[in-house]
Design a protein that fits this description.
The protein is α+β, with helices and mostly antiparallel strands. The chain has eleven helices and 22 strands. The longest helix has 29 residues. The structure holds flavin-adenine dinucleotide (FAD).
Length: 415
């Protein structure tokens, strides 16, 4: 089958992850039923399957509240009330704590909540349906701009897997870290693989964590224990890629023993209660965030080390900036896919993304080195941060997304 549907779509989003769905909902809410938004994703039939949980910072939480999704996940969201960071070898009996965070982003507002990705995606999907977003359970296979653009024929022609063709004024690539839409547009991503993978799983434990997040910088890389509701924690456990494969393949008992060596017994007995999965880790930033009638958001635009739990938060910042750019343009009667409109989005997001990419890369390099001298230097460095409340407050406000030119949705304002 290879036919073209007549209805023109204003914005077609490839990818129904958190970034793609949040953008779809924000656009429909901002521009109403006259603005046609479609999301295509081959995984739409079998969602949600992501075993990860994310630390959602205060600004991203405000965005989710502004689009009416936070209320659906709030009951199961675990506030992060404080955070400890330690630096030690696996065999150390006591892990020296050298950094603690216990501040609020703003009075009464924790700087982050842990939210499980699966339920968050399900809540976004329900909201997308309720706001009239058209959902297509197919991949976007290819797209092309008209060879001779004319004012009456300014759309992209997009083929879904299976052959059906759609026309859209703007295609948004929200298709994740290995974005085939970015590749098809000929936009290179610059960066490198760390040769590491992050093993993700969920554990239940006897004692409550009290809302404390822990990050242990072990020689192989960071091992994070992130608090979830109901005496559970999400684990993000970094290892060299081959070692991660070996650990994933272990029988349950052996995997449990390896996990316990790193987790410790401070929360009592632990039990693995979630699926185990490994994610390759790299730093990849697209050379451009826009192309002809194309915008990149979320992991399709940038992948960073999960060391600071910022990837999804950055994706939601893209959503806030692109939604505001499109809504402002459409209200003025401008074409949302025009170069001038897309340039505004790119200017808004590129610098911030580079800064976060560099910061997380630096942290990872500092902490993945096994030298005792480096250990001493970084203990000194972070120890200093811990002693300067002003600097730490800035760190927390940055994590909470309250620094710089903040788009409306991240301030909790409607578009
Ligand atoms: C171990 C780990 C822990 C993390 N922890 C945190 C954290 O605590 N906080 C945080 O902010 N971030 C965290 N992140 C990052 C975060 O998980 C990602 O940034 C986020 O999931 C990316 O969302 P996305 O919507 O951009 O892409 P994805 O969630 O990858 O969604 C992409 C979607 O596109 C679809 N797709 C693919 N190809 C096509 C196509 N051709 N056409 C249509 N659809 C297509 C896929 O089916 C998929 O549904 C973590 C990452 C890792 C690896």
């Amino acid at each position: 089958m290879d036919h073209e549907t007549d209805d023109r779509i204003d914005v077609l989003i490839g990818g129904a992850g958190v970034a793609g769905l949040a953008l779809a909902v924000a656009l429909r809410q901002g521009l109403g039923a006259g603005f046609a938004v479609t999301v295509a994703d081959p995984g739409l039939d079998k969602m949600p399957g992501d075993p990860r949980a994310s630390a959602i910072v205060a600004a991203a939480q405000r965005l989710l509240a502004a689009i009416g999704v936070w209320e659906a996940v709030a009951g199961e969201a675990q506030p992060i009330l404080d955070m400890v960071v330690t630096d030690s070898r696996l065999a150390d009996a006591v892990r020296p704590v050298f950094l603690t965070f216990d501040g609020d982003a703003e009075p009464g507002q924790p700087f982050a909540h842990m939210v499980e990705n699966g339920p968050l995606q399900a809540a976004l999907l329900a909201k997308a349906r309720a706001t009239g977003v058209v959902l297509r359970p197919q991949a976007i296979a290819e797209f092309a701009a008209p060879s001779v653009p004319s004012p009456s024929e300014r759309d992209l022609s997009v083929a879904l897997a299976g052959g059906e063709r759609l026309r859209t004024r703007l295609l948004v690539a929200a298709d994740g870290a290995r974005s085939s839409l970015r590749e098809r547009a000929g936009i290179p991503a610059r960066g490198w693989s760390y040769g590491q993978s992050a093993i993700v799983t969920t554990v239940a434990h006897e004692r409550d964590h009290g809302g404390r997040a822990e990050e242990h910088f072990l020689p192989a890389g960071p091992f994070a224990i992130l608090p979830l509701r109901h005496c559970r924690s999400s684990i993000v456990w970094t290892e060299q890629a081959a070692e991660a494969e070996r650990l994933l393949a272990l029988p349950d008992g052996d995997f449990h023993a390896e996990l316990e060596r790193r987790f410790g017994l401070h929360l009592g007995e632990i039990e693995v209660v979630g699926a185990r999965r490994a994610y390759p880790i790299g730093l990849w930033i697209a050379r451009a965030f826009i192309g002809e009638r194309l915008a990149l958001i979320g992991d399709a635009a940038h992948v960073i080390h999960p060391i600071a739990g910022q990837g999804l938060n950055m994706g939601l910042k893209d959503v806030a900036a692109l939604a505001e750019t499109i809504v402002d343009a459409a209200r003025l009667g401008l074409d949302p896919g025009s170069a001038a409109v897309l340039e505004r989005y790119q200017r808004w997001r590129r610098f911030d993304t580079m800064a976060m990419g560099v910061a997380t890369d630096g942290l990872n390099r500092l902490f993945s080195n096994r030298s005792d001298v480096l250990r001493f230097v970084r203990d000194l460095g972070l120890g200093l941060v811990d002693r300067l409340p002003g600097l730490k407050q800035l760190f927390i406000r940055e994590a909470a997304g309250l620094v710089g030119e903040v788009p409306k949705l991240l301030r909790g304002e409607a578009l």
